[in-house]
Design a protein that fits this description.
Order of helices and strands: EEHHEEEE
Strand order of the largest sheet: 1-2-4-5-6-3
Structural class: alpha+beta
Number of strands: 6
Length: 122
């Protein structure tokens, strides 16, 4: 896990067989944020994808590789001065080694990102 406990911490997890809903707290002083729009630090899109990967790895207790991403929509930037807490809702289907995932990142009524992601177990 590259970012867990370094860039973010897990505040709350609610899991079942087809879903993982996780509330995280972003560490607002992390160096990643200093280089991404320093006047108003936002979480880079690639970091959002990495967090989703790490949350699924935690859920499945298995290393994963992102093999395909589609329909990625960054709707609202996660400006950390305003949003330190965000929620990752991941619904998934498992087919042999592949995990097909729908991701939504939000806080209350604000939706930051939606995507369809395909992961493969290592």
């Amino acid at each position: 896990m590259i970012l867990l406990n370094n860039f973010y911490t897990i505040e709350h997890i609610k899991n079942n067989a087809q879903e993982c809903s996780t509330k995280i707290h972003i560490k607002t002083e992390h160096p990643i944020l200093k280089g991404h729009f320093p006047q108003e630090a936002v979480v880079p899109g690639v970091v959002i994808l990495q967090i989703a990967k790490e949350l699924l790895e935690t859920h499945f207790s298995n290393a994963l590789v992102l093999t395909h991403a589609s329909q990625i929509k960054y709707l609202v930037p996660i400006a950390v001065a305003q949003f330190e807490m965000v929620q990752f809702d991941l619904s998934f289907q498992i087919n042999e080694q592949d995990i097909s995932t729908n991701m939504q990142v939000s806080y209350n009524e604000t939706i930051f990102c939606k995507a369809k992601l395909l992961f493969r177990k290592k």
